[in-house]
Write a structure and sequence with these properties.
Elements lengths: L1 E4 L11 H4 L4 H15 L4 E4 L3 H11 L6 E4 L8 H10 L3 E5 L21 E4 L4 H15 L1
Parallel strand pairs: 1-2, 1-3, 3-4, 4-5
The protein binds 1,3,4-trihydroxy-5-OXO-cyclohexanecarboxylic acid.
The site of 1,3,4-trihydroxy-5-OXO-cyclohexanecarboxylic acid has 10 residues, from loops.
């Protein structure tokens, strides 16, 4: 499975800790690696700032991965090209968030990404990623 972190996620652990918590990106990825080992799956984690780089990553994932976990960060709320890339690549994809965007500023209540994903998991900190891995694993096995 491919795990994609969007813009500013690289600063996790030090940015707005009251909202996003204290886990660094390395710690989030370690938690994912631990879960992947338990499930017996392979994961690759990437972090990109630009929408174009995320789209290129998704194009490349088409033949190399079975599923995608993506935290699109602020792109969630307005990035139509990213939305179209997820739809075009057509891999089972779960949108994840550390925080619960629904309970925050009004602009965060909209996700243009959610309609092209299998589901969304938000509000559980790093566990949002873990829950997404488990859900996609169950989907793949079914
Ligand atoms: C976020 C929520 C987004 O609204 C925000 O722009 C982020 C992080 C989260 O993980 O909670 O950068 O995706």
């Amino acid at each position: 499975m491919l795990i994609i972190h969007g813009p500013n996620m690289a600063l996790s652990g030090s940015r707005e800790v009251d909202v996003y918590g204290t886990a660094t990106l390395a710690e989030i990825e370690e938690r994912c690696e631990r879960e992947a080992r338990e499930l017996g799956i392979e994961i690759r984690c990437v972090a990109h700032t630009s929408e174009g780089a995320i789209i290129d990553e998704l194009h490349g994932a088409r033949r190399a991965f079975d599923a995608v976990v993506i935290n699109p960060a602020a792109y969630t709320h307005y990035a139509y090209a990213l939305r179209d890339a997820i739809a075009a690549v057509n891999l089972p994809t779960v949108e994840v968030h550390l925080s619960n965007p629904q309970g925050r500023e009004e602009f965060r209540a909209t996700s243009v990404i959610a309609p092209v994903c299998r589901g969304t998991i938000a509000g559980f900190g790093p566990e949002s990623y873990v829950l997404a891995l488990r859900a996609l694993y169950a989907l793949h096995k079914a």
